[in-house]
């Protein structure tokens, strides 16, 4: 019998990999020292674990160990970056897209209130930003370009290679929120013209509550001024006692990506194709959002004509999925991403998001296919 519920919301968060949990456990117990307490054995062990994790993270991204700042997650990393860059009075212009996560858009709205100018790039109905407009929008006052690598709702992968080339040709910093791309698609600082990235471990089978703000080798992290003040940890940019178990878990999750990604992505793609086929049979009642090809593995975003998603969710309580971005849950507002790609509020409210992960099984997807076929037959006809 299929174990329930079936979890298909891996774009919201993922299960911690058992190997990650195993790596973390000692630092909750016998090795519980404070990494800042360098004067004794327990503190030295804790600090060694942090620095080894920093080396692994830097190696994954192909940058220097001094370029890694550990944070509590992507949201904090984005805020530290965006508010930390604001000290130059001659650079008061930022370029972004309307498709970004709220942890980018809301800080930028706050900066607009304090006198910054923010340009929001247009995008097409598949969620690709207009890079010609990007080039035209850059001015002498442009401080930063911030464009996410992959969208958390519709899965579209942006051309950060070209965006980064445009930024570098005009000597403008380029940041990419990589919360949804790490562990799914390739990235490193050597092969991509990106200056700064942010991400959190819980999107790639690591623990919640830990993330990274990372700089390419050519960009000094000293370009940021602190927005949080305390004991000076993480070069003063993210002060506070370092959470050793979570940081160890993050670096272990990155190790597993290097070792296993090719094989588990193949499995995810097969399961995604199977689940998608269930919805294809409903013909023109179904619209798949995001690009059909340039999208992250495991993501399905589907609008279903005349569907009351609350009724579907009530009938499918044994399956975990999203009816919008998890970070917007409870707001009652249609997704800003779906609005940005041209969906009406009615269409946006009739939209489902599935995130298939490496721990999903054939049996789980078979069960989900059967349940959704049965429920949609009842609700749509």
Which helices and strands, and how do they pair?
Layout: E1 6-7, H1 18-24, H2 41-61, E2 68-71, H3 74-84, E3 93-97, H4 102-113, E4 117-121, H5 131-137, E5 142-146, H6 160-169, E6 173-177, E7 196-200, E8 211-215, H7 244-280, E9 286-288, E10 299-304, H8 309-315, E11 319-320, H9 336-340, H10 345-348, E12 351-355, H11 362-380
Give a description of the structure.
The chain is of the alpha/beta class and 381 residues long. The chain folds into two domains: 6-15 and 261-380, Aspartate Aminotransferase, domain 1, CATH 3.90.1150; 18-255, Type I PLP-dependent aspartate aminotransferase-like (Major domain) (Aspartate Aminotransferase, domain 2), CATH 3.40.640. It is 37% helix and 14% strand. It contains eleven helices and twelve strands. The protein has helices at 18-24, 41-61, 74-84, 102-113, 131-137, 160-169, 244-280, 309-315, 336-340, 345-348, 362-380, and strands at 6-7, 68-71, 93-97, 117-121, 142-146, 173-177, 196-200, 211-215, 286-288, 299-304, 319-320, 351-355. The strands form three sheets. It has a seven-stranded mixed beta sheet with strand order 2-8-7-6-5-3-4, sandwiched between helices. It has a three-stranded antiparallel beta sheet with strand order 9-10-12, with helices on one face. The protein has a two-stranded parallel sheet with strand order 1-11. α3 packs parallel to α4 and α7 packs across α11 (362-380). The longest helix is centred in the last third of the chain and has 37 residues, at 244-280. The chain is globular and about 70 Å long. It starts with 5 loop residues before the first strand and ends with a helix. The mean pLDDT is 96.
